[in-house]
Amino acid sequence: TKAARSSDGTAGGVAIGAGSTGYLGGARIDLTAVDNGEAIDAYGVLAEDGGHIALANRARVDFGAGNTFSSAAAAAIGANSLITADDFTITSNQTGVKATRGGQVRLGTGTVDVLHRPGTLAPEALMSHGAGSRITASGTQITLHDEGIAATVSYGAELYLDKGAALFATNNGVGIGSVVDLSQDQTTVLPRKIVLNNAQVKATAGVIIQGDTTFEMTAPRRGHVVATEPVHDPRQLPCRLETGGVSLQARVPDRR
């Protein structure tokens, strides 16, 4: 699908309203032509007001929306709106994946690559914004190829990086930023939640947390303990075993 230029809104794949679904198995959505800084609310794929979009089977979304704050390569907007993606590729020079106003995005095996184009707003690879909004990534590789924040969590939203997900900010960027914000009455800070479960974050600043934020990080599970003699020279571990980590204990060395 290749969308035509539009000044009042453009989307490649759309599901709007409860019961609306779109299965984009093997689809190629190219919105790089919307690259003039004039498009408003442009999306590569959009699930809104209860709609559901599924990307699968090497589906690809290439997005170049210009200088538009609301735009994203993939966006779930509104309660019960859902985007699922597995075996997919998303590239963007604006926000990569966005969940807002209670929408949810579930990413599986695939990649999200965001590259800032000079003269446009600084992009985010992931944006989870608003109470009830959630982005979950499991086994996904997410990369922001420029300065900025790779993933933001704000206004009561949630972000889960799970089961081997990897988040990279390659150029002096921040991995995850929890943004201080107020509810509509401008008096109450809405709590946010960030969960890292066996996930990887690589950035100049990995996670920046401000305000009322729940942060949970689960390390890989500990395996069996193998008893050894004091090691003086390198040697192999017993067959069929791998090291998942090395822990050190403060104690008097054995005198053997």
Summarize the SSE layout with pairings.
Blueprint: E1 11-16, E2 21-25, E3 28-31, E4 43-48, E5 52-56, E6 59-63, E7 72-77, E8 82-85, E9 88-92, E10 95-100, E11 104-107, E12 110-114, E13 126-129, E14 134-138, E15 140-144, E16 149-154, E17 158-162, E18 166-169, E19 174-178, E20 192-197, E21 200-202, E22 205-209, E23 213-218
Parallel strand pairs: 1-4, 2-5, 3-6, 4-7, 5-8, 6-9, 7-10, 8-11, 9-12, 10-13, 11-14, 12-15, 13-16, 14-17, 15-18, 16-19, 17-20, 18-21, 19-22, 20-23
Notable features of this structure?
single chain; about 260 residues; mainly beta; eight-stranded parallel beta sheet; globular; disordered C terminus
Notes on the structure:
It is built from no helices and 23 strands. The model is unreliable at 1-8, 223-238 and 240-256 (pLDDT under 50). Strands 1-4-7-10-13-16-19-22 form an 8-stranded parallel β-sheet, with no helix packed on it. An 8-stranded parallel β-sheet has the order 2-5-8-11-14-17-20-23, with no helix packed on it. It has a 7-stranded parallel β-sheet with strand order 3-6-9-12-15-18-21, with no helix packed on it. Helices cover 0% and strands 45% of the residues. With 256 residues, it is mainly β.
